Amino acid sequence: MRRPREVVDAAVMAKVDGWTESAARQNALYEAPTHEDAEWADAILFGTPSYFGAMATELKNYLDLLGPQWKRGALAGKVGGAFAAASWPHGGSEVVTLSLYAPMAHLGMVILPTGYTDAAMLEAGSPYGASAIVGKENRPPRTEDLDAARHQGRRMVAIAGALIAAGEMPCRNGDSKA
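Now predict its structure.
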């Protein structure tokens, strides 16, 4: 797991109660993603909070900086998926998840929605990807939310494994087939 870093300075972060502390706590838990991470991974599951129906600026910045990988086709054929969290039931999780499909398409990734492929998806998330409603209190995800996320992760690993076994996944050494 990786967490993109803030793109605003400390003075801006200090204007929002808890932002600085939350960012420091999360940054201590998770390394920042690198371009190399995107290249070595066989599957990438992008996750983000929903901010006004859009992905977090930090994730957008990371995606925007993948231009060299796009130019080389380094992510083409890799499995990609998305999930989101929102404060409110109609906070934009589905829109945000779908919006992540566009950069994945440009990068040539194999976009893998969850569909209703497991009962967990009927309790949490959507056919596009897992999601959680955390409320204004920023509550932890419910058990049902975590079940949907686990299903999504297992599904991505299984499909990526099948593509590798079929010789359809790009090799890490730059060859066109595994």
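The beta strands are 43-49, 79-86, 110-111, 131-133.
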